[in-house]
Design brief:
The protein has 161 residues and is an alpha+beta fold. It is 25% helix and 18% strand. The protein is built from 3 helices and 8 strands, in the order αββββαβββαβ. Strands 1, 2, 3, 5, 6 and 7 form a 6-stranded mixed beta sheet that branches. It has a two-stranded antiparallel sheet with strand order 4-8. It is globular.
């Protein structure tokens, strides 16, 4: 029997959770919208000590304002785009990127969080795409509200004037 796509995605989510997928395996059929309350983790269980990534092996660290490593997995925050620090287009982007990186580090270190999959689970670079949520609120949206990121539009924005 064929099920509609949304029903298949919900069934797949249930199977992944039952198989031990936990918060990293939660899925929502609507990309980048906050998942329905029923799909949100009831308790934020993820936590770690984050610092800036260096040149050594990356396990749990922050790359920039929208990318970090967590327990050996490289994660791209799916609902935002932050200024670049590795190849900025101008000095203003480099400065804002450094501030976004520092702020993301603070937010990740501030307490437990959840990682929610919405839309595709991995980007073309092999990074896990996740929305980072604490108490039902997106940390990406927080960076956006603070002027350190923009809502993801499917492409990089221009941070230079």
């Amino acid at each position: 029997m064929k099920h509609p796509p949304a029903r298949r995605a919900t069934a797949l989510s249930a199977i992944l959770v039952l198989l031990g997928g936990g918060p990293l395996a939660l899925a929502s059929p609507t990309p980048f919208a906050m998942p329905p309350e029923a799909a949100m983790p009831r308790v934020d269980e993820e936590a770690g000590h984050f610092a800036a990534c260096g040149s050594d092996r990356r396990v749990t660290c922050v790359v920039d304002g929208d990318t970090f490593w967590y327990q050996g997995t490289k994660i791209r925050i799916a609902d935002i785009n932050a200024p670049e620090i590795s190849h900025p287009g101008c000095a203003e982007e480099a400065d804002l990127g450094a501030k976004a990186t520092e702020r993301l580090t603070q937010l990740l270190n501030a307490g437990h969080f959840s990682l929610v999959t919405q839309g595709r689970p991995v980007d073309r670079y092999g990074r896990a795409l996740r929305v980072v949520v604490r108490k039902g609120q997106s940390l990406g949206a927080r960076l956006e509200a603070e002027g350190l990121a923009e809502h993801w539009q499917g492409r990089r924005g221009n941070w230079c004037r």
